[in-house]
Amino acid sequence: MDEKIFNSSLLNFRDVTSARLLEAQQLSPRVGVNSQVTIAISWLLIIRSDEASQVDRKYLRESLGITSLIKLWGPPESFVRRKDDASQYQEQYPDKIRSFQVLDLNIHEISLYSSTYRANLSNSLSRKDKARGSGWFLVGQMNNLKAVCESAFERETGWLKNIADFLALSKPQIKAVFEALAQEEVCPVLIYGPHTSLILCLLLSLQGVAEDKISREYLLTEQNSDALPKYDNAYRKEFGLAAKTSYDHPQSFVPDVLDHINAEYRGVHVYLSSIGLTNNQLESVKKNLQEPANSNEKLVDVEEQYRFGEKYCRTSALVYTRASFSRYF
Q1: What mean pLDDT is predicted for residues 100-104?
Q2: Which residue of 27, 108, 185, 276 is surrounded by the most CB atoms within 10 Å?
Q3: Residues forming beta bridges with residue 311, ordered by sequence position
Q4: Structural domains in the chain?
């Protein structure tokens, strides 16, 4: 396993998926950095947070000390009857944000794929692609429709433009992530799902961490994502999309993203303020991530493996504990 710079505030969970629980190794009260351990976290907890069990709670709270989850997959898409017209339906979570509690775990489901972002993607389709998509829709071939749309999106939208669109069009969702992190007793918190790296950039920049050290953190995490397609393809198959064999993770992700934020918004702090976060909230986020670690907190840098069917799957995530960011300065 590649060596990470010591930081008791930042833990990388590179494999947090499983179809069935595994036996967890007995953890000592304080686990050393770079230990390789196996923690049993169920597939349903990671994907469908509202189905967390007592077993999940035991491993999260007692083994890892985690009190909160921020799932960037967002809440499940569901529709309910309109209150003003029972014959019509509306999306239950149109802002892609849901917060609730399971047992004593605080769950925040927040998707950066906002309605505004998705509408912008749709508008980026060419007339030819829209015509092809409409044709498949009219004959009921929804899988082909999705394939046409995805191919067009990947062709028309580069990764940096995609990040820029998230920053511009998903401000309420990014604000919700930081509002969750500003709450009392939110840490230790597990953040996982799509575009965790963008949240990492914003968080560490807010803390004043140097760009090269954020970039190193990003690269150390991404080099362990070789099995991520196995995890993602389970969803792609469910939605009728072709499987991916690999992901193109740009080496310049961090400097390019921060350069864009500096040019467009004059810095991360200005950007976060512009989306409606107050100075008190931003200070609360920084305080939550800087409080001294207590004697019961775990210092773990793990590469964890969970079995999904007969294959191992991976996804990257971050765990922040109440501890110092001193390694970055």
Answers
A1: 79
A2: 108
A3: 308
A4: 10-114+170-328 (3.90.190)
